[in-house]
Design goal:
With 114 residues, this protein is mainly alpha-helical. It has helices at residues 19-22, 29-51, 56-76, 91-113; strands spanning 5-7, 14-16.
Length: 114
Amino acid sequence: MNRHRFINMQTGETIMSEVSARIPALQDGNVIVPVAAGLCLILLTVVLKNVLLVPAAQVSPDMILYIIIYMGLLTTFPFMAETKPAEPMSRSRTMLWVFVFVIATSAIIGIYAI
């Protein structure tokens, strides 16, 4: 990955211009995965209500089920980690879990679109 680096002229330190360099918690997979799951749930709700025009009477009970499913996945992913709880997850493991949530959201949207 190509990263832009800047050097602080006063201290001589290298400054990275990435958001994750400015916010250290975003480098930890234990933060990114729940945030991605939450964003997927919000996206799911927006797409079902505003794009596919699913009635609210149908979306509300189904969203409770999807929240339970996503919470089940969120509670299992730390146990699947290869590292100790105090260490951040590897980038590949984090991307795998984010991919799981994106695929699950896409599958749910696909079921409603049929």
